[in-house]
């Protein structure tokens, strides 16, 4: 009898709205298949009709425009290798614990995004002098706790980031149309920033002279360092330098002998210079081997051979260093919303005879 294949599954953090964690420990290919891509939503999925779909560009521009999907497909396209990481990735590791979806290591995925640079659309609309931000609004909307009525998911980017050559209006993922649950028909992709900036189901682009004050800009996706006040608050923007040990997994029981420790590392630029691994809780460190091909904003794979391991309890750590010389911190910057956890990664294992 043929042995059935075994496949990983998403880890459910919520159903309405749907929030699912990627089985990142078991994903070997460079790109994440759509069925394994993490899902982060604030509302139920929107209703849409691609046959009557138009993208509006308006606000502080000389020439307000509407673009159909066919219009966008006719424009020169670019492909950007980029990972998306939820700002709350690893929230469940914070100490003291914080409220919110208790993501572990799987609120991160990556692939190749194809579309039109946002800059191209803004140039066609002719941005007026004095513009400060570009607001992007999705079709998903609903009731947000603490806010009266329903609101759309909307975010803004400073003009400089909105006009960066790698900030795109994507319509394809890994050479196919973006799946509905990932933002079909159009999704903003902002490489190097946490994924809340990459607005899904995009319906409107608005150029503004003023700072946007929507709740997902000035209340959520803001770091509050103080437990009881808003003092010192600052917005969530660029992805922090980080690494994850993917194998062995936390609390694994291993046989004695030799093993391969492997994982991933990433940053806002994608450029990882070195990875250090400790198998004795940080007393000593060894440099891991990096995958020689670093692609765009994708993560970098790394591995280290752990030889002749004897029975006992072990704490394995990984620490990334980027091209600027910056290193992962020993302790994550605590904030009450639980964003941007990036402490040196830690896995505890037991080795038996």
Automatic annotation (TrEMBL):
<dbReference type="InterPro" id="IPR036374">
    <property type="entry name" value="OxRdtase_Mopterin-bd_sf"/>
</dbReference>
<keyword id="KW-0479">Metal-binding</keyword>
<dbReference type="Pfam" id="PF03404">
    <property type="entry name" value="Mo-co_dimer"/>
</dbReference>
<dbReference type="InterPro" id="IPR014756">
    <property type="entry name" value="Ig_E-set"/>
</dbReference>
<dbReference type="InterPro" id="IPR005066">
    <property type="entry name" value="MoCF_OxRdtse_dimer"/>
</dbReference>
<protein>
    <submittedName>
        <fullName>Sulfite oxidase</fullName>
    </submittedName>
</protein>
<dbReference type="Pfam" id="PF00174">
    <property type="entry name" value="Oxidored_molyb"/>
</dbReference>
<keyword id="KW-0500">Molybdenum</keyword>
<dbReference type="InterPro" id="IPR000572">
    <property type="entry name" value="OxRdtase_Mopterin-bd_dom"/>
</dbReference>
<dbReference type="GO" id="GO:0008482">
    <property type="term" value="F:sulfite oxidase activity"/>
</dbReference>
<keyword id="KW-0560">Oxidoreductase</keyword>
<dbReference type="GO" id="GO:0030151">
    <property type="term" value="F:molybdenum ion binding"/>
</dbReference>
<dbReference type="GO" id="GO:0020037">
    <property type="term" value="F:heme binding"/>
</dbReference>
<feature type="domain" description="Oxidoreductase molybdopterin-binding">
    <location>
        <begin position="42"/>
        <end position="215"/>
    </location>
</feature>
<feature type="domain" description="Moybdenum cofactor oxidoreductase dimerisation">
    <location>
        <begin position="236"/>
        <end position="351"/>
    </location>
</feature>
<dbReference type="InterPro" id="IPR008335">
    <property type="entry name" value="Mopterin_OxRdtase_euk"/>
</dbReference>
<dbReference type="GO" id="GO:0043546">
    <property type="term" value="F:molybdopterin cofactor binding"/>
</dbReference>
<dbReference type="GO" id="GO:0006790">
    <property type="term" value="P:sulfur compound metabolic process"/>
</dbReference>
């Amino acid at each position: 009898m043929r042995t059935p294949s075994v496949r990983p599954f998403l880890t459910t953090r919520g159903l309405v709205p749907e929030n699912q964690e990627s089985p990142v420990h078991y994903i070997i290919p460079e790109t994440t298949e759509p069925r394994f891509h993490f899902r982060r939503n604030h509302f139920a999925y929107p209703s849409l009709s691609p046959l009557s779909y138009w993208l509006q560009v308006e606000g502080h521009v000389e020439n307000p425009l509407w673009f159909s999907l066919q219009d966008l497909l006719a424009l020169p396209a670019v492909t950007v290798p980029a990972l998306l990481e939820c700002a709350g990735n690893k929230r469940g590791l914070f100490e003291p614990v914080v409220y919110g979806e208790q993501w572990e290591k799987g609120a991160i995925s990556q692939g190749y995004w194809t579309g039109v640079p946002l800059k191209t659309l803004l140039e066609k609309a002719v941005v007026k002098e004095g513009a400060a931000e570009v607001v992007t609004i999705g079709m998903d909307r609903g009731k947000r706790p603490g806010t009266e009525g329903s609101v759309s998911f909307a975010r803004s980017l400073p003009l400089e980031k909105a006009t960066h050559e790698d900030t795109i209006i994507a319509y394809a993922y890994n050479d196919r149309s973006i799946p509905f649950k990932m933002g079909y028909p159009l999704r903003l992709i902002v490489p190097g920033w946490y994924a809340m900036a990459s607005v899904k189901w995009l319906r409107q682009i608005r150029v503004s002279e003023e700072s946007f004050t929507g709740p997902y800009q000035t209340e959520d996706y803001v770091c509050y360092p103080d437990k009881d006040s808003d003092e010192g608050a600052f917005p969530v923007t660029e992805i922090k330098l980080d690494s994850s040990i993917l194998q062995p997994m936390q609390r694994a029981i291993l046989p004695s002998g030799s093993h391969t420790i492997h994982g991933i590392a990433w940053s806002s630029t994608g450029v990882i210079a070195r990875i250090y691994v400790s198998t004795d809780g940080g007393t000593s460190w060894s440099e891991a081997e990096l995958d020689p091909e670093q692609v765009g904003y994708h993560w970098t794979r790394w591995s280290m051979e752990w030889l002749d391991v004897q029975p006992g309890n072990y704490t394995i750590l990984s620490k990334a260093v980027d091209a600027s010389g910056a290193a992962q911190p020993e302790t994550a910057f605590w904030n009450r919303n639980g964003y941007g956890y990036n402490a040196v990664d830690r896995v505890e294992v037991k080795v038996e005879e």
